[in-house]
Amino acid sequence: MNDSFIIAVDLGGTSFRVALADSAATFLNRNAEPTRASDGPRIGMQRIIETIRTTASTVGMEKIKGIAVATAGPIDPGNGVILTPPSLPSWHNVPLKQHLKEAFHIPVWVESDADMAAVGEHRFGAGQGYDRLVYFTVSTGIGGGIIIDGQLLRGSKISAAEIGHIIVDPRGPQCNCGGKGHVEAMASGTAIARMAKERISHGSASSLVELCQNDLSRLTAEMVVAAARKGDNLASEVVHEAGTSLGIAVVSLMHTPDPDIVIIGGGVSNAGDLILQPIREVIADRAMIDFRNRTKVVQSALGDDSGLYGAIAFGLDKLG
What is the pLDDT of residue 292? Predict the structure, then answer.
């Protein structure tokens, strides 16, 4: 693959990013744009195609050997179709692979962003050296990927490891997918902001009121984490409860594929021990004794780039 290059795309509900890499997985150029999901998939695809061309212009599109996409799921990876992703509410049954192949006439692979983040961490990040790992991405929603014996766990038709939809409380709040009590509805960035708003609306005191300038519609999970770091009681309780819900999901997965390591990524992982410590507490309290001391729980090493690195690794492997 000398003098050949690959494009990676990370498509999310808020933004999409495009990176140009060489055969050594070194980034040579990258661009980011807002997704503007409400504009619909037709306009969105046009913008993605334009950004790919701009990013590839560093070396010339004729040297690009493939395009690997990490996108919000669920998806049908065999056909490269985005199905019904909660974070892209108008992007239903979008044949992403077909659109890109028609635009560029080169190989295209479309995979779940969380699956690709798991691959990225396994190949280049916190999961290096481990054959069995579980990756959680905790941001606007919650997704995940599972590596078993060095290989990505695949579904029969749909991307596997939709671990944001593990039920942690049957009486819990409704998830964006329509189910109830899923960990995504109780521990995602969206859930953290919602829980804080609910408690403030019911009269609980918090420095968050000042932080969001008395406009709760502006309150974000990042603000809640920042307030928790400064000792705000309400914020600390909310983040701890989110970590506890995550911990319940983690324990369920520890007892299933028996991973060597659990990696927590996504924007909420920037809370560090504020979110990791309650996960570890749940493990100590609820995991079977033979599991609780052998599985490490760590923060992502690649941060927001996990999905891009995973897409690059996946594409390079396909190209051989």
Answer: 87
